[in-house]
Amino acid sequence: MIRFILLQNRQGKTRLAKYYVPLEDSEKHKVEYEVHRLVVNRDAKFTNFVEFRTHKVIYRRYAGLFFSLCVDITDNELAYLECIHLFVEILDHFFSNVCELDLVFNFHKVYLILDEFILAGELQETSKRAIIERMGELEKLE
Amino acid sequence: MNPFSSGTRLRDMIRAIRACKTAAEERAVVRKECAAIRTSMNENDQDYRHRNLAKLMFIHMLGYPTHFGQMECLKLIASAGFPEKRIGYLGLMLLLDERQEVLMLVTNSLKQDLNHSNQYIVGLALCALGNICSAEMARDLAPEVERLLQFRDPNVRKKAALCTIRIIKKVPDLSENFINPAAALLKEKHHGVLITGIQLCTDLCKVSPEALEFLRKKHTDGLVKTLRDAVNSPYTPEYDISGIADPFLHIRLLKLLRVLGQGDADASDAMNDILAQVATKTESNKNAGNAILYECVETIMSIEDNGGLRVLAINILGRFLSNRDNNIRYVALNMLMKAITVDAQAVQRHRATILECVKDSDASIQKRALELVYVLVNETNVKPLTKELIDYLEVSDQEFKGELTAKICSIIEKFSPEKNWYIDQMLKVLNKAGNFVKDEVWHALIAVISSASDLHGYTVRALYKAFQTSSEQESLVRVAVWCIGEYGDMLVNNVGMLDIEDPITVTESDTVDVVKIAIKHHALDLTTKAMALIALLKLSSRFPSCSERIKDIIVQHKGSFVLELQQRSLEFNSIIEKHQNIRSALVERMPILDDATFSTRRAGSLPAAASTSSGASLNLPNGVAKPSAAPLVDLLDLSDDLPAPSSSGGDFLQDLLGIDLSPAPTQSGIGQIQKAGTDVLLDLLSIGTPVQSSSPTTDILSSSQNGKSPIATLDALSSPSSLSAQATSSARAVPMMDLLDGFGPSPLKPEDNGSVYPPLVAFQSSSLRITFNFSKQPGNPQTTLIQATFINLTPNVFTDFIFQAAVPKFLQLHLDPASSNILPASGNGSITQNLRVTNSQHGKKSLVMRARMSYKFDNKVTLEEGQINNFPKDLAS
């Protein structure tokens, strides 16, 4: 199960933080700080997995952005790595050539996409097309 | 109406925040915004409510407090329109979690929305419920969710399935109701619903044995068929991930099959074929393909045994291990860790590759590989593996060295086939990573060295050589200095050469040089330097020719700013200068520490430690006594309420040792000296761990109760025949205080203030008479000073005369050393000894004492005992 999802830039600014387990605000800030420190200095050829407390963080870097998933220690790391990539592809599709600024100014939309992609810490939909279509339907209702 | 597309005020705020150059500026902007939002909220401004909340979410993400927006979420959720609800639910999930009580207020809105006619609103409510629902909400809303599992729109069904996972995790009791609807989802044609349904079933199996049983019986075959269809399905671009068809569905199916197959031979049997097919047919050149293979391997490892499949799985892991992608190697190491319980032999085959992974530059891989190597070590491969690991120790990263060192030490200790090898390997580790070795490891090493008497010479020579190259490795230096102190003569004389050794020429002066370097080295700490001083003292006796030089080095520390070093320096100097006669006995070799005792002490059983140490400490040379533990307890039996031997034994012991327990102002000078005297002895018996407390009482207790430190055990283990006893016997009549005569005034003599109390014949037998003379210090009526005079009534000379005394708990007894231990015959002379008794119940109880005398004539030891209760009454009033 996914414990939390973080999207941070290289400076450690949080661009998206979704927690599927309850944490105090102070604890959340600590987690965000620690995860950033863990992933930011790792060599590109290193594994995309780092142990974090009693869980592990699967992260992937896209330009200056780090996508990090904190998952259970027994979970399939490789699958979550694909999961991150799929999410990035969806964002890329939705914003057509996504960049950090899109995510900053449309942060609420990123959360909505995420809610169509992952729910209760589990994968909800793996079809890019289905999610984009769904987002379109929801936009029409605004 | 749309707050995001038209108004642009959210946009403006984000821009303003982004334009801030300093954190202070950003705080100012946020403060202003928050103030505006609060005002707007207070005015109950409908139009701006969702825009305000959107801004708050952004502010929240930056890390500012936004709890004041929680109620706004609830209001938005309760409003009718989809856009309001949407932002309300989003805010609810971000700003609140299941622990906030406010959440209770939203249950009703959620219930209405779950029953809403608009399926998009139902979707919003399900999403919020799935992400933040509490146990109470789960109970309240479970029926709605259950119904929605059969909703016509697949988007709602898949959301309901995942929402159910959260509900059954919060309230496992509810899982019963969900078994049937969940199982129905396994037959779904809609991809998203199928994938979430499988996930739901997997989680159901975890919380409910009935669900597991039901699904295993009814659905194993169906799931196998679904997986077969997925494997053989034609290309579908929609679910394709870099050329691999639908890996997420594969992985979820494999996971559920694993749960069903575990511990059930029939179910395992049913899935064998398809697992073999997945394992052989999946392409392994893409990450997605490897993710499937990885999941498949785990399933094969977990389900009931099928030899052929397992070979296939281990081979896949072998392929993973040689992959160039670090991620793949990482998961391989991870999985081999699980495989080792299934087939250790097969994992052993990959040992060489795994060992290479320990040397990888990626910390994640190193860590996994090291753990795996650690479990792979056994008696047959320990030697080559240890060699590899130690070789790598030299070049490994600093951050990794600590962990690596700990594992190597643990391996060496666990599997060492012989002491020689153990010592060799430990020396190598100390040489390369001495600064990372934990205290208990080098303590254990010293214990082993000490017990391997045929290797003493070899070890000290090896350490001498190692010191030349690695004098900055703290624990190496400590062990080297200890061994040189103990076995320095073997180093110089090449005693006990092994065949493999080349003879080396080391002069006595070279040996002293080593210790001198250790003491001067700026980077080494207090413990090491204190150990070095002891080594010097020992060498001063072993190498008479260097004695002067050693003295000079010791004397240099007289002015040390570190109290411990200064004190040792002064004490040792005094021993070298004034006490040639006892020095050699004082610095004899440590008694051999036997492994069994060492390991029990190390396990830290405190009661045992306390009793041994009190027993052993009795052997501390106090110049007067050499009693054993048992008679001590006997002596105590005159007290009305028998105290626990262990605790009062300690007190009593200190009395016997002549330690001043009550440092009254007038006696402080003596207290200091006596403390020093005790410390010398304690220190001589210990190899390190400077005791730095100020009170002599705690000195003794702390060093003797320090069960964890093997150092303390060394003194505790000195048997009656050991160092301390030898010191006593050779020191004979030399009273302890003499050792210290260079320091200050001579021991306190009772002031002759007219002896207002009559003398008392305390004990008389056919051979011995004891007379007590009493006096008191003015202003201190509780304390009675007693001068005991012993007179020999027989025509034989008594040697080894010892007087021991015990008092009940309310009294405190302090014995000064006796004037001699030889009692001339026929009253031609006497021994005197001063006692000090402090009565804590002065005025209520009178003094009482039990005494025991032992002496030798004609080589026979005679014991006499007596109880003294005829003390003058006025002593107690």
Automatic annotation (TrEMBL), chain A:
The keyword Cell membrane applies. GO terms for biological process: clathrin-dependent endocytosis; intracellular protein transport. One of its GO terms (molecular function) is clathrin adaptor activity. It is a peripheral membrane protein. It holds the Pfam family Clat_adaptor_s. Keywords: Cell membrane, Coated pit, Endocytosis, Membrane, Protein transport, Transport. It is found in: Cell membrane; Membrane, Coated pit. Gene3D superfamilies: 3.30.450.60. Belongs to the adaptor complexes small subunit family. This is AP complex subunit sigma.
Automatic annotation (TrEMBL), chain B:
GO terms for cellular component: AP-1 adaptor complex. Keywords: Cytoplasmic vesicle, Golgi apparatus, Membrane, Protein transport, Transport. InterPro entries: Adaptor_Complx_Large_Subunit, AP1_complex_gsu, ARM-like, ARM-type_fold, Clathrin/coatomer_adapt-like_N, Clathrin_a/b/g-adaptin_app_Ig, Clathrin_app_Ig-like_sf, GAE_dom. It is a peripheral membrane protein. GO terms for biological process: intracellular protein transport; vesicle-mediated transport. Residues 755-872 form the GAE domain. It comes from the Eukaryota. Pfam families: Adaptin_N, Alpha_adaptinC2. Its main location: membrane. It is found in: Cytoplasmic vesicle, Clathrin-coated vesicle membrane; Golgi apparatus. Belongs to the adaptor complexes large subunit family. PANTHER family: ADAPTIN, ALPHA/GAMMA/EPSILON (PTHR22780). Subunit of clathrin-associated adaptor protein complex 1 that plays a role in protein sorting at the trans-Golgi network and early endosomes (TGN/EE). The AP complexes mediate both the recruitment of clathrin to membranes and the recognition of sorting signals within the cytosolic tails of transmembrane cargo molecules. This is AP-1 complex subunit gamma.
